[in-house]
Write a structure and sequence with these properties.
Helix content is 70%, strand content 0%. The chain is mainly alpha-helical. The chain has two domains: 6-117 and 162-248, no CATH class; 118-157, no CATH class. The protein is elongated, with a radius of gyration of 28 Å.
Length: 256
């Protein structure tokens, strides 16, 4: 049994690398700052290593100035990175669904074929109960409607909402070719039938808006603590998405 999408494995590696870098920065900068303070009070007391790639470009006062904003900048860059990784994960996971089923075109053809199976039914029981539902709704007949519907469902009859599944796959393929982050919650809710809470939807779009503000150079106040909360949310959401995809969409249907 498949445990995870390949997209999820890549996402996990990417976000762990970002976390490792954050830990390094949050460990190195305080240590460096302490030594810079000593150097400022006692010039020549500390011997500093030559920076990789940026040899001789930073003076003592410059470095002390950089340190003042490192937490805020690190928070922004981590959020930018991990949101982009998450966005790419959803896009890649959807493409992986298509690949698992030998392409979107085959999925669409299969959905159309399965839908049309109810067009030429000869089973008298199905025909009779179907006819009871082919009328203007009369609330007095609710019990009869429920009985006929239950019987038809038990006989795997395709209702109108089932007949539109091929179009849903077609639209999902189109969106996947021009994927945008604002598509994500609708895709999860309606294309993949993943139940998202109102809080999850709000939190996702709050993070997306912050990402957009950062990317467009707008003023954003963001702490490392808040960034970690957002990162944990995206991590938990990716786990929820991946479990749903593996359990409900990675199922061989070549023989139905």
């Amino acid at each position: 049994m498949i445990a995870h999408t390949n997209a999820f494995i890549k996402l996990r590696e990417q976000t762990q690398a970002t976390l490792n870098f954050s830990i390094l920065m949050c460990s190195a900068v305080p240590f460096y700052k302490e030594n810079l303070d000593i150097e400022k009070r006692f010039p020549g007391k500390i011997t500093f290593p030559v920076p990789d790639y940026f040899k001789g470009t930073s003076k003592l006062n410059d470095l002390l100035e950089f340190i003042k904003t490192y937490k805020e900048n690190l928070s922004k860059y981590v959020l930018l990175s991990n949101f982009s990784f998450f966005e790419a994960y959803v896009e890649d996971a959807i493409k992986e669904i298509f690949k698992f089923h030998s392409g979107a075109e085959k999925m669409i053809l299969r959905a159309k074929r399965l839908s049309k199976e109810s067009f030429n039914i000869k089973d008298k029981n199905i025909i009779a109960n179907k006819r009871k539902l082919q009328d203007a709704l009369d609330k007095k007949k609710t019990l009869k409607y429920r009985t006929s519907t239950r019987l038809l469902k038990g006989l795997s009859y395709k209702f109108p909402c089932d007949l539109m599944s091929a179009y849903g796959i077609l639209q999902l393929e189109k969106v996947s070719k021009n994927f945008k982050s604002f598509h994500i919650t609708d895709l999860l809710n309606f294309a993949l039938n993943l139940d998202l809470t109102n809080n999850e939807i709000k939190m996702f779009h709050d993070i997306r808006n912050i990402r957009n503000d950062i990317a467009h150079g707008n003023q954003v106040s963001l702490s490392i603590e808040q960034t970690m909360i957002y990162n944990n949310f995206l991590r938990d959401l990716s786990v929820k998405i991946d479990s749903h995809i593996v359990n409900h969409f990675f199922i061989i249907e070549e023989f139905i």
